[in-house]
Amino acid sequence: MVATAVTSAFFPVTSSPDSSDSKNKKLGSIKSKPSVSSGSLQVKANAQAPPKINGTVAVTTSVEGSKNDDGASSPPPRTFINQLPDWSMLLAAITTIFLAAEKQWMMLDWKPRRPDMVIDPFGIGKIVQDGLVFSQNFSIRSYEIGADQTASIETLMNHLQETAINHCRSAGLLGEGFGATPEMCKKNLIWVVTRMQVVVDRYPTWGDVVQVDTWVSASGKNGMRRDWLVSNSETGEILTRATSVWVMMNKLTRRLSKIPEEVRGEIEPFFMNSDPVLAEDSQKLVKLDDSTAEHVCKGLTPKWSDLDVNQHVNNVKYIGWILESAPLPILESHELSAMTLEYRRECGRDSVLQSLTTVSDSNTENAVNVGEFNCQHLLRLEDGAEIVRGRTRWRPKHAESSANMDQISAERA
């Protein structure tokens, strides 16, 4: 019956009025009352072959029920098939619930595949090597490269700082402060960097993905050393090596503090017994003044965006200020290959700073270092108080940079 109804709905079969009337008589309760109108089509209620009236096929428009003699609608005949539930909609609902549950389970089930690896479920990074080393990947964005089409030194330094904070968070040591542990927060203590040493073997470029590994070690009785190793995530090539020394400062008094025993108990389990990734630069950083500085840039002021959550200027910002006084010919023809900084004091939002730089030739007896320059730097307040002392080493970008070197020598003369 169902097949007949469906077939007749799409492929109407012509029949004589006599045969149609005989079928209607056998059905008894169903009658067809086609209206005679030229060019109109209607569908019979019983889905039987429509009769011809005046040469046209009359088809009724309802297939769900029929009308009796009194004009009242009667439901279609009850069959086993049309009493069954809509299994397709039930199956679709079950599938939707299953897929949603599977997605939530995959987001929550982030247990490490190996016992020596803890994977961050949010893709920030992972702790490896028995929980002592934190590793994170960074993709070099288009807004992080400079005129040389390579990542800037500030970009690399921001990557180092970001991994240090994420290391503390992944290890469960991140309290309310910027890298402070819970016990440090109770005692109003924060970390401040006192010395930073960086060597850049090669700068990544746009689209490169770098892997930054970082770990911490003890530095004396009241210090902590943090090392970084930056490499190309695909080739494993070492790009940058950095080491730093951090001490604690009271956030309220802004004075250095010893490491309390409660804090030491939090951080010592994460210390590695390893040598620094870079040998210590034992050469003393000289203090520049107006008579020894060859280039001076004045009127540098911090902006609100230069402050971190501890309400002091971010240490990466100091690097940008130091390079403000570097000679333009060096910036154009050379790239920074090494840097040593000593942070002596913090500055506030209302501070006005001066950047001083002097250039000195490197040891030309070594053929490898021919064309390199060393620069001495000082960042100070207007009243002469030292903020940062530094030394940078610059290597030629291209072999044809000899003309720029001559220009640098002429400017110094």
Question: What are the SSEs and their pairings?
Answer:
Layout (H helix, E strand, L loop, with lengths): L1 H9 L6 H11 L24 E2 L2 E2 L8 E2 L5 E2 L12 H22 L9 E2 L6 E3 L4 E7 L13 H18 L11 H5 L2 E12 L8 E11 L3 E10 L5 E13 L5 E2 L3 H7 L27 E6 L14 H8 L5 H6 E10 L9 E9 L11 E9 L4 E11 L5 H11 L1
Antiparallel strand pairs: 1-2, 3-4, 5-6, 6-7, 7-9, 8-11, 8-14, 9-10, 10-11, 11-12, 13-15, 14-17, 15-16, 16-17
Helix pairs in contact: 4-7
Q: Might you state the CATH topology name of the domain at 118-277?
A: Thiol Ester Dehydrase, Chain A
- The secondary-structure class comes to alpha+beta
Indicate the low-confidence ranges by residue numbers.
1-67, 109-122, 363-368, 399-403
CATH arch. level architecture of the domain at 118-277? Roll
Average of pLDDT:
77
The gist of it:
23% of the residues lie in helices and 27% in strands. It is α+β, with helices and mostly antiparallel strands.
Task: Please describe what this structure looks like.
Its main location: plastid. Keywords: Chloroplast, Fatty acid biosynthesis, Fatty acid metabolism, Hydrolase, Lipid biosynthesis, Lipid metabolism, Plastid, Transit peptide. It comes from Gossypium mustelinum (Cotton). Residues 12-48 are annotated as: Disordered. Belongs to the acyl-ACP thioesterase family. With 413 residues, the chain is α+β, with helices and mostly antiparallel strands. Among the domains are: 118-277, Thiol Ester Dehydrase, Chain A (Roll), CATH 3.10.129.10; 281-400, Hotdog Thioesterase (Thiol Ester Dehydrase, Chain A, Roll), CATH 3.10.129. Helices cover 23% and strands 27% of the residues. Strands 5, 6, 7, 8, 9, 10, 11, 12, 13, 14, 15, 16 and 17 form a 13-stranded antiparallel beta sheet that branches. Strands 1-2 form a two-stranded antiparallel sheet. Strand 9 and strand 10 form a beta hairpin. The longest helix is centred in the first third of the chain and has 22 residues, at 87-108. It starts with a helix and ends with a helix. Residues 1-67, 109-122, 363-368 and 399-403 have low confidence and may be disordered.
